[in-house]
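sry for the spam today, last one i promise. struct tokens for design, 277 residues
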């Protein structure tokens, strides 16, 4: 799946779900970033990212909420459509937001079908293990690829007592492994492990056929996912597990500051940026 050269839109070979299992078998790491709009998806796709997640983290990152709980299906559809349209290579996954699948397989299927029909993404993601296995089965049986999400699951953050590492201790680790197996047996094509101790994530990675995609779960997962704004340093604060590969937030403020100064001084627009005749 590696992008040996930076793919141009016309030469990019689409990443498909069967490539994920094949990558795990080859021991090739899978890369995933969130994306919420067309311009960012275009830039990140050119970098060779394997998977995009149109995450319900859009609630925190783009909509200014403190949790993902207020995000609705109607909130997710326009960004998912924009990312799917702009993406040539990466496999695009959309989150099923809180309240859109918990009631049971029928509700999950209705939401999944709507997402697939109205957005053009290639997979959906939902949070939970044994308790949502029937939902994963219903979606998978209908031909909708599903990515699971275990460990710290933000939609349950109040039940979990906040942002806390999950799976610590033998009993919790065992329960997490059972959840991971249930997600796999229900037909999921991959599973995100969020804020899980390294050795627990490693064990789950070993016992599963499907790839694990870690976020705050160490290097031994089959792949990694980050929220793109954390990865690119768009905000002053980011979680400890998120490495900042750039300081784009500061660069953007610096560019806007220069623009403001130029306009105030009257040095923009100059002749190069004006129609002289
Ligand atoms: O919504 C999201 O961005 C996520 C990632 C944290 C995996 O679920």
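last one done:
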């Amino acid at each position: 799946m590696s992008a040996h050269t930076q793919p141009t839109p016309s030469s990019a070979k689409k990443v498909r779900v069967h490539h994920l299992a094949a990558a795990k078998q080859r021991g090739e790491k899978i890369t995933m970033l969130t994306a919420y709009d067309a311009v960012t998806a275009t830039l990140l796709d050119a970098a060779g990212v394997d998977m995009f997640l149109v995450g319900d983290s859009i609630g925190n990152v783009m909509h200014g909420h403190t949790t993902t709980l207020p995000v609705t299906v109607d909130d997710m559809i326009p960004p998912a459509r924009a990312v799917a349209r702009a993406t040539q290579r990466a496999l695009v996954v959309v989150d099923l937001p809180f309240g859109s699948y918990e009631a049971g397989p029928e509700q999950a299927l209705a939401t999944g079908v709507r997402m697939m029909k109205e957005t053009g993404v290639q997979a959906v993601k939902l949070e939970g293990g044994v308790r949502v296995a029937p939902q994963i089965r219903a979606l998978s049986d209908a031909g909708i690829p599903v990515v699971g999400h275990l460990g710290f699951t933000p939609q349950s953050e109040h039940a979990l007592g906040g942002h806390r590492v999950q799976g610590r201790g033998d009993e919790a680790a065992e329960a997490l492994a059972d959840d991971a197996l249930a997600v796999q047996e229900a037909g999921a094509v991959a599973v995100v492990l969020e804020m899980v101790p390294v050795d627990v994530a490693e064990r789950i990675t070993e016992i599963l056929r499907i790839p694990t995609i870690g976020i705050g779960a160490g290097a031994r997962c089959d792949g990694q996912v980050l929220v793109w704004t954390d990865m690119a340093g768009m905000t002053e604060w980011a979680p400890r597990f998120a490495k900042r590969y750039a300081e784009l937030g500061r660069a953007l403020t610096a560019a806007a500051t220069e623009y403001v100064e130029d306009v105030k001084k009257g040095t923009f627009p100059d002749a190069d940026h004006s129609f002289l005749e």
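The first strand starts at residue 30 and ends at 34. ok im logging off now
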